[in-house]
């Protein structure tokens, strides 16, 4: 059931103010940082034809409000935040795991926690689909859910847990904070057959990646900003080993990768590319702790993209946004602004409210 109270409108109206005070102003006007674009890279080129985003948080998604659990479970968001922090301190990889789960969930039938479900009556789950087999953090989500069930039984949805945990995880690794509207319900079923068609693989081409995001309503600029989440986490060698040993069957590495980077990647993956140790996505040398940020884009310009889908952002019209985000302090600020706005948009994709939605007691079971 969707709850509305007299204060919900005021809470939602506060979203814009919160975004602006967090240096993530979401006004509909053009960003001042568009001035960083060279004249020959203006919107008259092959981009999306817009210097500003089509989405504004003032367009309230149906069923979502700010502070949905204020009356039914007033400590809900604090419980999520504290548990996510505890899990992160025990294992820093938990942050990237929560963010990836959120992305992969929302890209199918919206943010409905369908990605968390186990098989139902023997039917394959979204977790069985190839793009999702490397997902981690399912147990971490259940730990958050268990604490919420102890405090407020059958109240807080797994879909809202994912949305909140992704934001809280990003903050822990140095990312921007942004408001998360709540009130989502959980799906009673998964959508295995749709995962492969909607989620691009790590080796997807430039065109496939852009098309996948465009079909979910994201512009080029938003897509490049969202892929900045690849500045954190780790990736297994099997997702990029073809680029460092025999790219496209040539017997040579992908020539778009910096030669030193090829050696770093081979050192992690071993002679056959099947090394067990995953490679850090931080785009710095192994062993150096790095957090969320626009350093990702600077490394792409230097040919140090680990995934093909990352490096190809420098090969087409999207390179203009890569250059802007990599342009120092102003570019970093613009990236954080754009990323925050795109995450608000992602969190608003097709929220499930009312029948047939439900609140699962365990996130893996309907």
What would your notes on this structure say?
- The protein is mainly alpha-helical and 366 residues long.
- It has a domain at 75-233 and 281-348: Orthogonal Bundle (Peroxidase, domain 1).
- It is built from 14 helices and two strands, in the order H-H-H-H-H-H-H-H-E-H-H-E-H-H-H-H.
- A two-stranded antiparallel ribbon has the order 1-2.
- It is globular and about 55 Å long.
- It starts with 7 loop residues before the first helix and ends in a 19-residue tail after the last helix.
- Belongs to the peroxidase family. Ascorbate peroxidase subfamily. Belongs to the peroxidase family. Classical plant (class III) peroxidase subfamily.
- Disulfide bonds join 73-152, 106-111, 158-363, 237-269.
- This is Peroxidase.
- It is found in: Secreted.
Secondary-structure blueprint:
Elements: H1 8-21, H2 76-90, H3 93-109, H4 138-151, H5 158-172, H6 192-198, H7 206-214, H8 220-226, E1 234-235, H9 241-245, H10 259-269, E2 279-280, H11 295-301, H12 308-311, H13 319-325, H14 329-347
Antiparallel strand pairs: 1-2
Order of helices and strands: HHHHHHHHEHHEHHHH
Q: Main sheet: which strands, in order across?
A: 1-2
The number of strands is 2
Q: Extract low-pLDDT stretches.
A: 1-55, 284-288
| Residue-averaged pLDDT | 82
CATH class label of the domain at 75-233 and 281-348: Mainly Alpha
Q: Strand fraction band?
A: under 5%
Distance between the termini: 17 Å
Whole-number radius of gyration? Answer: 20 Å
Can you summarize the main beta sheet? 2 strands, antiparallel
Q: What would the principal axes of the Cα set say about the shape?
A: globular
How many DSSP H or I helices? 14
Structural class: mainly alpha
CATH fold-type name of the domain at 75-233 and 281-348? Peroxidase, domain 1
Give the helix level as a range of percent.
Answer: 40-55%
CATH arch. level architecture of the domain at 75-233 and 281-348: Orthogonal Bundle
GO biological process, one term: response to oxidative stress
Disulfide bonds: 73-152, 106-111, 158-363, 237-269
Pfam families: peroxidase
Protein name: Peroxidase
